[in-house]
Amino acid sequence: MNLDQNKTPLLHKLNQFKASNPISFHVPGHKNGTVFPEFGRTSFDSILSIDYTELPGLDDLHAPTEAIAAAEELAADFFQADHTFFLVGGSTAGNLAMILAACTVGDKIIVQRNCHKSIMNGLELSGAKPVFIAPIYDETAGRYTNPSIVILEEALKKHPDAKAVVLTYPDYFGEIYDLERMIDVAHSHQIPVLVDEAHGVHFSLGDPFPQSALKLGADVVVQSAHKMAPAMTMASLLHFQSSLVSKDKIAHYLQIIQSSSPSYPLMASLDIARFYLATFSQEMKDATMQSVRTVRDIMNNSEHWDILPITENADPLKITFHVKHWRSAKEIATLFEKEHIYPELVTYNQILFIHGLSPFKELPRLKRAVNRINEQLKRDLGTTYNNQHPINANMCLDGPHCKKVLNHATIELTTQNIQSIQELELSYQTMNQLQYFQVPFVQAIGEIAAEAVIPYPPGIPLILKGERITAEHVEIIEQLQEKGVRIQQRDQGIRIFGNR
Question: Of 6, 69, 290, 326, which has the most beta carbons under 10 Å away?
């Protein structure tokens, strides 16, 4: 790092402007917080006081030359990128922009199949022809995780004209893989690698965290700073270091995708998050990891679940419960929620908790809660959720055809045979020309989906738009609906291509 990482130029400029006691005859309508309902002031006053628009000296996100440019330059210096773009539309905005910059109508693009829905949306917007590569099923983790280097090599051999490779690193649970080898393979074909690193902004800190995608040589990397660093929700970053992708194209598409009125509090929180990471000392790392070990010890005190071990291939801040077969994860997660402890997500047999990037401060409360939950489970001798809703072990919601679901935090995992390399039945251009209509799921078997079926989170499609619907897809959907799962788009059926 060559720049002074103790500076926060955008936050400083906003506070400086605030101190000048400005009079607002401009947007936004809250007029520096003076026009706002009284009952909301306690929650919003401090934010509204720096919620400005593009005024003199405050710079412009889409053509930065002053404070925003300085903040982005500091971020690029810390993350060791050639250039860093601030994102106010989440990693979604970055994922869309990097795909649009890398390919256009009819171009082939190799994509890890268990990716976020924003990647799928980027493919459709670009008009590219996706070639999906299957992830590997990890028996220990009980879910599909990373793609196979062998399958990537096969896909590159079959499709040497691909314009890019799109990978996800790490996955939702913090699992990583040999990304450097995959990048090297793609680069040997002069093909850029675009990485959705939404859950890995803190990898920039080095040991004990995995190596970052930037350090491993990815061309474009998108990170949700708000997921693992102290930034506001939606605040994200796009890092660029490539001779194979156009930085100007990325900037062009970002100004199309993102708001022309970007939030200054969001951007300032990115400035603060970068400062936090850049000044995160070894002492802070040690204290955080000691806290992780203590939290894991407290949480692992139960006969009803195990905690998956910390390995060199995983983010240590992700704490995953593997629930014993006589219990359901939903049942146990509900007990935690009654204690006002909220996990990130839940599968039928796993619960994911995310430790913060600082020592946890409520250890006694956590210990009491775990003890009460264990006592409740011992008293509960009734039928468990698993007995009421048996899981078909031959199905999956985590692979090319499917992934996870159950309200905000409940996600189903099962297993299913998948194609190692898969293309859509129709191009996006053809699909845009066709009529479609809605039918019940059971009547859609054998037809081509005119829309995606997307459980959320983590927003990974169960069925893709342009994919042929199978009986197994429908079986999975019916199983989810029996459990009260809300499936994005529509619960009562699916749109298919054709005329009635």
Answer: 69
* Top mean-pLDDT range of 381-390, 411-420, 424-433: 424-433
Do residues 221 and 212 lie in contact, with contact meaning Cβ atoms separated by under 8 Å? yes
Tell me what the mean pLDDT of segment 83-92 comes to.
Answer: 98
CATH of domain 424-497: 3.90.105.10
- Do 366 and 446 meet the contact criterion of CB atoms below 8 Å apart? no
CATH code 3.90.1150.150 for 282-385: yes
Scanning 380-417, the segments in alpha helix (DSSP H) are: 385-388
Query: Considering only 268-277, 286-295, 304-313, 375-384, which range has the smallest mean pLDDT?
Result: 375-384
Maximum Cα interatomic distance, the chain, rounded to a whole number of Å: 67
Question: What are the structural domain ranges in the chain?
Answer: 9-279, 282-385, 424-497
| pLDDT score, position 135 | 87
Give the pLDDT confidence score for residue 114 in this predicted structure.
87
Question: How far, in Å, are 264, 265, 392, 468 from residue 48 at the CA level?
Answer: 10, 8, 51, 49
Alpha-carbon distance of 365 to 376, in angstroms, equals 16
311, 176 Cβ separation under 8 angstroms: no
Domains 9-279 and 282-385 share a fold: no
Q: Quick one: residue 123, left, alpha or beta (phi over 0 = left, psi -120 to 50 = alpha)?
A: alpha
User: Residue 395's pLDDT is what?
Assistant: 34
Q: pLDDT grade, residue 500 (50/70/90)? A: confident
- Whether 235 and 225 have beta carbons less than 8 Å apart is answered as yes
Q: What is the mean pLDDT of the chain?
A: 90
Q: Go through the chain and tell me how many residues it has.
A: 500
Choosing among 3.10.100.10, 3.50.50.60, 2.60.40.10, 3.40.640.10, the CATH entry for 9-279 is 3.40.640.10
Closest CA to 465 of 478, 452, 482, 476: 452
Task: Tokens for 15, please give them.
Answer: 């506070």
| pLDDT > 60? residue 436 | yes
